[in-house]
Amino acid sequence: MTYILGINAYHGDSAACLLKSGELIAAAEEERFRRVKHWAGFPSNAIKYCLEETNVSLNSVQHLAINRDPKANLWKKLKFTLSKRPDFRLIIDRLKNAKQWSSIENQLKISFPESSFTGEVHHIEHHLAHLASVYYTAPCDKAVCVSIDGFGDFASAAWGTAEATEIKIDDKVYFPHSLGIFYQALTQYIGFPHFGDEYKVMGLAPYGEPKHMEEMRQIVHLLDDGSFRLNLDYFRHHREKIEYEWEDGTPKVGELYSSNLKNLLGPLRREKDPLTKKHKDIARSVQSMFEEALFHLLNNLHQKYQLDVLTLSGGCAMNSVANGKVYANTPFRKLYLPASAGDAGGAIGVAYYVWQQLNSGAKAEPVSHAYWGPNAKPDEIRLLLEEHRSILLEQNCTIHKFDDESELCNFTAKQLIAGYVVGWFQGRMEWGPRALGNRSILGDPRRKDMKEILNLKIKRRESFRPFAPSILREHVSQWFDIEDDVPYMMKVFQVKQEKRKLIPAVTHVDGSGRLQTVTPISNSRYYQLIKSFYTMTDVPMLLNTSFNENEPIVCKPKEALDCFLRTKMDLLVLNNVVIQRQSV
Questions:
Q1: Where are the alpha helices (H) located in 5-73, listed in sequence order?
Q2: What CATH class has 133-341?
Q3: Cα–Cα distance for residue pair 18/20, rounded to 1 Å
Q4: Tens of pLDDT along 465-497?
Q5: Residue of 349, 422, 329 lying closest to 149 (CA atoms)
Q6: DSSP character for 68?
Q7: In 41-178, which residue ranges form alpha helices assigned H by DSSP?
Q8: What is the pLDDT of residues 256-305, one digit of tens each?
Q9: What are the CA-CA distances from residue 192 to residues 140, 242, 529 (Å)?
Q10: Hey, what CATH topology would domain 3-125+347-358 get?
Q11: Class for the domain spanning 378-581
């Protein structure tokens, strides 16, 4: 029996996973346990969960794999340092970061004093980890492989091909050029300063027009070989020490843009400033420039390799709007994306990569779902409700237990049709940033007011941000312009023109929806709930958003109950138990 522990550490979205003889057993992000978004540091709680889920100790783990190799691209680092002579403090920061990665064994001793790790540590290059995270888990045996992000091991992008069990990287884009840095810097400029705020720009973009493409093309230059370069006059990260805080908390990144960007686009927006038409136009232009660069690269790679299957990973692969346009803007006919395309996903990538290296030959079995996190036992839920009985009575809540799954789904579907907001907590927690029907807040997609209800009363977030439809897989072609599998909510497609008025709560301002396809195999209970709703309404989908309120997605029943009690949610379904406010 071979156990391989994969981790992403000392960076945003710290995470861990565990493979048992090549089979994924458990995976979780550290933020879910720490309750701090994008938590950076050592994923001790995620590791502990993975080991407990498998009922093994750290002593039994033969291999630990990390998605960072300080020795990777060493000559490129030396050449840059000697030729560009950046701020010495920037070099010191990178050396400090490299030292952290080399002290994993010491951190294990601190985090697990009762155990001793005697296995082998594998440092896997950052982008190779990204490429492995999707290719080794996808149902394909030959593909063009692309990874694009901010930076990792001195590179921001890598691409090549994969066949059978071998991934071959042919080329990279190196520091300081990066599409991820471009998008992050412009996200900061528009007034969204926090780590991971890029999705807000993506959500804001459809409200504007691409009126600033001339300026965008001054910032990002596309090269004949398909790659890209930044006009470094508009950035600071290559020459100055940027304020980075990665240890034990929410990552914080200082301003990446230079004063020249302000000269090009005008005054920057502060976080609390109102969003004007110009900000929306800039957001649309940023998104359009990103797509232009992405499709330029992909078209060149298709012409070079003549393969129709693409695997895409890295933080930039979280851009679901661009992902949904790949088929229309490139010759690729099949696109695979992992449940976690960003740095957390590197934990799975390195674990699978090491397993493949140890077991050359057959490719590992594809991963068919994303439910690899903690589950709640019936006794845990029962004790929780007993402890909170007085509070539930004060809030005029009733508690019902359903022994039959179909009755539970039919009851919940009727409440959704009545306009109620449902917290849906089922089975094992999702891996990755999307709620996929096990830690979700659900609503009726037909209601025009449901988006406003959720944003103001539950989510308490910007009004422009859209909500997603979870749809029965067999009905995709009837409701969307493209027929495809989207199990991890990583692609945005256009809703068919005649259907948009039927589902206003999940149709974005530009007629699109970030869908999740649901099958009986991937999630049987969630599928049954949507099917119950479909039987009653002829609409085969539900509005689905993450079960949280300006915090990480809930992990345990207590966090779900706390969120229910402090918001105006109408129902909370904890596995087979329904808690309902009677004031609704």
A1: 31-34, 44-54
A2: alpha beta
A3: 7
A4: 789 999 999 999 999 999 999 999 999 999 999
A5: 349
A6: -
A7: 44-54, 74-84, 88-101, 104-111, 126-135
A8: 999 999 999 999 999 999 999 999 999 999 999 999 999 999 999 999 99
A9: 38, 17, 36
A10: Nucleotidyltransferase; domain 5 (3.30.420)
A11: alpha beta
